[in-house]
Amino acid sequence: MEFFLVVLLLLAVIGFSNVLNHFIPFVPVPLVQVALGATFVAFLPNLHIPMEPELFFVLFIAPLLFNDGRNVPRAALWKMRNQILLLALGLVFVTVFAIGGFIHWLIPSIPLPAAFALAAILSPTDVVAVGAVSSRVSLNKRIMHLLEGEGLMNDASGLVAFKFAVAATVTGVFSLGEAVWSFLVIAIGGFAIGAVLAFAVIRVRVFIRRLGMEDVTVHMLIQILTPFLIYLAAEHVHVSGILAVVAAGIVHAIERDREQSPAVQLQVVSKSTWTVILYILNGLVFVLLGLQVPLVLNEIFQSPLFNNVKVITYIFLIGSALFLLRFIWVYFSWWGGWTLRKQQVERPSLRSVGIVTISGVRGAVTLAGAFTIPYTLADGSPFPERALIVFIAAGVILMTLTTASIVLPILAKPVREKGEENKEKLEKSAFIQTQKAAIRAIREVIDEENREAALAVIATYNRTISELIFESDETDSSEWEKEKADTRLRALGAEAQYLGKLIKEKRISKEMAYLLQEYIHRREIAVINRLRYKMLIFWTLLRRSVLQLIQVLLPGSQERRKRQRTKYKKMLELKIEMVEYAVEVLKNEMNANNKNVSFLVMGEYNQLLAKLKLIRNNGTSKNFTRLGRELQVKAFQAERDEVQSLYERGKITLDITRKIRQQINIRETYWIGENNLNV
Known about the structure:
single chain, 679 residues, mainly alpha, Na+/H+ antiporter like fold, elongated
């Protein structure tokens, strides 16, 4: 029961960290979660959750890297394979020897093999930490792909180097040839086993589907278990479980892209399930890291054998040396590639190299690996300076996380206000993005039941976007109004053309043709002369009311009303056909010059189409209204999420964020008021 309560508390801490980040988005979520984990220990001093490295890797690292493999941009990474291998292999091994030698020189009490072990566990960057820190800044896609590829590959090389360095420290024996051969077997074997097992899992799922078992729950369970089983199987035969789950993720992604008839429901459930799983696992990684940090720090700070100022200086110097070596390696490898292939490789800039350097964040993989260091050597003596090594590993993690949080936003040049004109353009651009986010959110949930309501809401957003795009252009307002009027008249001309086709084919009576021609004529007047149109509508309504009153008083009115309803339904069907034809014509005639105004008018027609279909399906108006409300609520939330995302990524300033949120709140308030009046 106590363990269950601890798990619930940890999950609550993860949720609270995201609430805090909403108010302090300039602080990355990982740092907030580490701090909350450390605070958790302070309030519950008797709580001790030991770091079990093997369990940590299989429970957290396996599913996280499997998901990264499923979503990795394969084509982009393949193009950058040389740069990625230089970082994931070359830099790792250079770090082991260069930083290992520096650590031994700086702290002579740490033997050279143990110093190599510390350097090895500090060499891999944490793909989870890198993604979390870089998500709040705008990074070049090429840099982001480079960091993702490095993070996927260098865990294996760093852990293999660490394993041999620890073995050399414990036994006093080291063979370079054996180490190189073992690395190749572990790396290539991990990739091969991961790919083969992933293919086997996919074949099992296909076989189950062929048996007629389309149960989403069963397929989802297989998908969730896959990374754990593949990791354990790879580790059981002593190859890299990390590379195995990465390879498995890539194979699953390839199969997903090649699938002829993907199960839409499974894809939706899979996306939702993995979103929750990744949210929890990512949070737990850093909260658990925060739980371990105070225990590691106390072991050193409370020991009389260590000078606190000196050990903190060690962390600063080793962390700085890691950044310096990474900068030199990235700059010269990038410069060398540019020199050899100037046409294919971007010329290195200090800013880009600085971003890649600072993004080399160490994370929970480093600390978990450090905890695997044995307490004793082969002869039974204590492992030299084990507590200090674990302390330095934890300190470097915090240093790299904090440095990246402070320096990356500066190097990535987040948005700054440069005058009122730029601020206004930025605000309009951000508002357009929020509207597009709302449309995406609605499109994701469209089905047969809510299609008409969804199209009506989307049409409203499309019209707003078109108006905003027009305001952002340097087009004269009179020209824009003329363009809108011309497009609407073209659409009405298409309706008239379709009506002429109906008359020619003798599909409608003369009376109905006359009524539809009058209907098109009235809408043409609405485009050309709004005042005249209002007067015409008033007169039409007055005349209709008088005729209805006369029909009620005259004998045989019941039979007459029945004929009127039949004629009305036929008219409604023909109007729907005319509107659909007009939309099709606008689509066919759309080009780069008239795209914005065409989308605007097509949005108006889609709204009209939704209303006509609603009238045709008599008795569904309440359901239509309910579905419309649900979709609009979802759209407002999508707008808010997009605003928060833009702010966290440094795309907009705090003032613009507050202003757009206020606009959303005002629109939502008016919408709620209108809906309450319509109830």
